[in-house]
Design brief:
It is a single chain. The strands form 3 sheets. This protein has a 5-stranded parallel β-sheet, with helices on both faces. A 3-stranded mixed β-sheet has the order 3-4-7. By secondary structure, it is of the alpha/beta class. Helix 9 crosses helix 11. Helix 4 links the parallel strand 5 and strand 6. It is elongated and about 70 Å long. The protein has 2 domains: about 150 residues, SPOUT methyltransferase, trefoil knot domain (Alpha/beta knot, 3-Layer(aba) Sandwich); about 90 residues, Orthogonal Bundle (Trp Operon Repressor, Chain A). About 40% of the residues lie in helices and about 15% in strands. The model has no long low-confidence stretch (mean pLDDT about 95).
């Protein structure tokens, strides 16, 4: 797995290349990273990488040529050459999800483009970019934080990166959880400020523990991300036991709402 990153701030990527599980994995040779600063591909004394937009307006726009030259250099350094996807971090891109991370973890990596300022020249996008990714409905000052998130989320899925292979399978949004949110977690001490660890987790009964975690996952997802419940239902990922529990949740919510004089909402 190899990531190339085109960025005006390459030092930011020491976070994933040197620290934590991703840093350890890089030192073990699980993945590698190449950093390409567009300023290194300029031809003027000021190392100019941006200019004012045609048509007027606020902000500056990144020049196409330094970006394209950086991508060309990154491609020539890769074993997969021209086949490597070029991914632009962009609010107009497709939403980044766990399934996208899993697909990328099965690939040879990508060339990630971190824009800055008001945006990048569209001609660079048209000529070089094969995919655009958005981290959500918000705007960052640049693509670096988004690229860091992609690298971290992908590398942790690779075999041997996490100490326990089950850790990734139990993550929120994972297909092993039907794409639902993970259940709450507890550790020592058993009693903390008057709150005890749920009895099911202390029982040592694996099936009871699994059932408790599933119910908690369903409850949390129904309360905070009902869209994920609907997606899992449409995909046929909910069991009869899941649906029974969700129905009981809805009934309990309806009774509580009626008690408070409110209109209930279902999942």
């Amino acid at each position: 797995m190899h990531f190339d990153v085109v960025s005006l701030f390459p030092d930011m990527f020491s976070v994933v290349s040197e620290l934590g599980v991703t840093g350890r994995a890089r030192k073990q040779g699980v993945w590698s990273i190449g950093l390409w600063n567009p300023r290194d591909f300029t031809h003027d004394v000021h190392r100019t990488v941006d200019d004012r937009p045609y048509g007027g307006g606020p902000g500056m726009v990144m020049l196409a040529e330094p970006l394209e030259d950086a991508v060309r250099a990154a491609r020539s350094s890769r074993s997969d050459g021209e086949s490597a996807p070029v991914v632009l971090m962009s609010p107009t891109g497709r939403r980044y999800t766990q399934s996208v991370a899993e697909d990328m973890a099965k690939s040879g990596g990508a060339i990630l483009i971190c824009g800055r300022y008001e945006g990048v020249d569209q001609r660079f996008v048209d000529r070089c970019v094969t995919d655009e990714i958005s981290m959500g409905d918000f705007v960052l000052s640049g693509g670096e934080i988004a690229a860091l998130a992609i690298i971290d989320s992908v590398v942790r899925l690779m075999p041997g990166v996490l100490n326990d292979a089950e850790s990734a399978r139990q993550d929120s949004f994972n297909p092993a959880l039907a794409g639902l949110l993970d259940s709450p977690h507890y550790t020592r001490p058993e009693h903390y400020h008057g709150v005890s660890v749920p009895a099911e987790l202390l029982s040592g009964h694996h099936s009871n523990i699994a059932a408790w975690r599933r119910r908690q996952s369903l409850s949390l997802t129904a309360a905070r991300r009902p869209d994920l419940i609907l997606a899992a239902r449409d995909a046929g990922l909910l069991t009869k036991a899941d649906e029974k529990y969700l129905a009981e949740l809805t009934q309990d919510q309806a009774r509580a709402s009626l008690f408070r004089g409110q209109t209930p909402s279902g999942v």
